[in-house]
Write a structure and sequence with these properties.
This protein is an alpha/beta fold. The protein contains 5 helices and 17 strands. The longest helix is centred in the middle third of the chain and has 14 residues. The structure holds flavin-adenine dinucleotide (FAD). The site of flavin-adenine dinucleotide has 20 residues, from strand 4, strand 5 and helix 1.
Length: 269
């Protein structure tokens, strides 16, 4: 059972994606599915959950944004330094029989979607993929179309118009939906972005899966830290990837999440 096993792995490669995001690569057969996450343990510091952003037969990558104390320590790591990895855990994206899919990513959320894109190109080559990626400005975009099969159609949006379309990922998504070009949406990124995407998926009656990140402690469904109102389901086991129908039953979705002590933290636009 994977819950019990911690693999102590040296960092094989580090790529600096932008000023705030780095991808750490490890040589290990992880066998994760897109949307699943692992725990990265820094002995003496803490352990934190991170989605799998890249995976090949014998390698995987975690794309990490520096936000607080633990990610600051992770950013100080060098090639060859060892960390503990547990997992993979959680639910994953399932495109089913969809033929025209849209992947909509913001921030580090684009990384697990690029894993989904790469896997879909390999296993379902007849599926058309529109990959919509948004950022505040050009320097924060880190996905490079040249790293992918040319079959993926990329759309970039920036708030300041420094690259791609000026505006939001949801503007591009709505255009594609209104042209009847999409039958499944996978999204990962800021919760308010995902909330708006669910609204569009409802409006255009399109299947959609989101990734709902909640503060996690045990990751195996025991502690109850990551339960969501009012259903009480655990995002570490029944999530983080959930479908539109379930997301719409979660009253806190797009409104608030909880900190480590269970305190409510409101999302602000
Ligand atoms: C399923 C899942 C997948 C994630 N994937 C990624 C990823 O691919 N890349 C990435 O950069 N980040 C990811 N995160 C968020 C990441 O775990 C936090 O950013 C990180 O733990 C921050 O730690 P810190 O000490 O640097 O910052 P802190 O100052 O401790 O926290 C900053 C914010 O990070 C979040 N956070 C902190 N600890 C946890 C925790 N134990 N569980 C959930 N959220 C936490 C909270 O929203 C908090 O407000 C993921 C979280 C979840 C739940």
């Amino acid at each position: 059972m994977k819950y019990e096993k911690i693999n102590i792995l040296p960092i094989k490669k580090i790529v600096e994606n932008n000023a705030f995001i780095k991808t750490f690569y490890f040589e290990h057969q992880l066998e994760a599915r897109p949307g699943q996450f692992v725990w990265l343990w820094l002995p003496g510091i803490s352990e934190k959950p991170f989605s799998v952003g890249y995976q090949s037969n014998n390698e995987f990558g975690l794309t990490i944004c520096q936000v607080g104390n633990v990610t600051k320590k992770i950013f100080e790591l060098k090639i060859g330094d060892k960390v503990g990895i547990k997992g993979p855990y959680g639910t994953y994206y399932e495109i089913g029989k969809s033929k025209n899919i849209a992947l909509v990513g913001g921030g580090y959320g684009s990384a697990p979607l690029s894993f989904l894109a790469a896997k879909t190109v390999k296993n379902n080559p007849d599926v058309n993929i529109s990959f919509i990626i948004g950022a505040q400005t050009k320097n924060l975009l880190f996905i490079k179309p040249e790293d992918f099969n040319q079959k993926i159609k990329f759309y970039f949006t920036t708030d300041d118009g420094s690259v791609g379309t000026k505006g939001r990922v949801t503007d591009v998504l709505e255009k594609l939906l209104s042209e009847n070009k999409i039958d499944y949406i996978a999204t990962c990124g800021p919760e308010l972005m995902q909330f708006k995407i669910i609204e569009l998926a409802e409006k255009y009656k399109t299947d959609c899966q989101i990734s709902l990140e909640r503060y996690m402690k045990c990751s195996c469904g025991i502690c109850g830290q990551c339960v969501v109102d009012p259903l009480g389901i655990r995002m570490c086991t029944e999530g983080p990837v959930i479908n539109k129908e379930l997301a719409l039953k979660i009253s806190e979705f797009g409104k608030y999440h909880r900190g480590p002590a269970g305190d409510k933290i409101l999302f602000s636009a």
